[in-house]
Amino acid sequence: MKRNLVIITSFSFISAFLGLLGCENDRNIDVICKNNPELCADLHKDSWCRFEKGDLVRHRLVLKKAATPSGQQLFQQLIYLENYSNCIELAAGVQHILNPQRTQDRERAFAVSTQTLSELREYTKNNTDVYLAYYRWLRFNDKPSQDIVIAAYEKNSISDPQILNQLAAYYVRVSPSEAKRIYRDLFAQTSFDKFNSDWLLGLASIFQQQQNFEYVYLFTKANTLLTDNQVDEKQLLGLIGGNQVLAQALDRQAQALILDLKSDNFANTASATLLNNPENTQE
């Protein structure tokens, strides 16, 4: 009987500053804006969205210092612009009773940020750099851009975990065995402080397709050990037919998996061997 997977409840402005040279090394946003006013002129003035604004300004300084911005740098600028624009859009909807010009300033900043984002997207739309192709695939499901990323992967020229994560999600549908290989590589190549617990659920979904319910249990359990995700324990146990002895063994394996992920040598751990041979799950 098939069991269900457990449910876990304006670029013209940018162009101007890209070519500028600067020598400001201070990371404080106020100092950066004081010494590089062109980097902040289009942004709002008050303290709303300070993290998003800070990331955007600091990265603009990186671009200002770059003789020729790389595809990865432009990709990151797109992400920071998106984050800032989304945040200031919400802030623009908050009416400031005593100081209405602050609301107007946020509205202006939002309008400019959307235009800048649109222009940067247009500027990079034909760039074949893998990071910019990845961005277009991620945001617009652009098939030619997807093909660029897949071709780069097939040449073993992609190592960035976020791009590999997107590829794994793609291969889950078209080649589960390739998706498993990507996840195993991510486990082995990614330091624990950068480990994405959703990769465990990605593996669980693959084994769900293959009706390997012991592994669905194992990776779902490991995910709950790493996160605050809640799971229906009765439903989880139902995956393995209510077998309490097997559940205890799989719980120990999930805990061991977490310890191995925290090690500096996952590729040579017992968990890595188990991933290469899923049929060896022990009761």
From TrEMBL:
Domain of life: Bacteria
Xref: PROSITE patterns: PROKAR_LIPOPROTEIN (PS51257)
Protein name: DUF2989 domain-containing protein
The species this protein was found in: Shewanella subflava
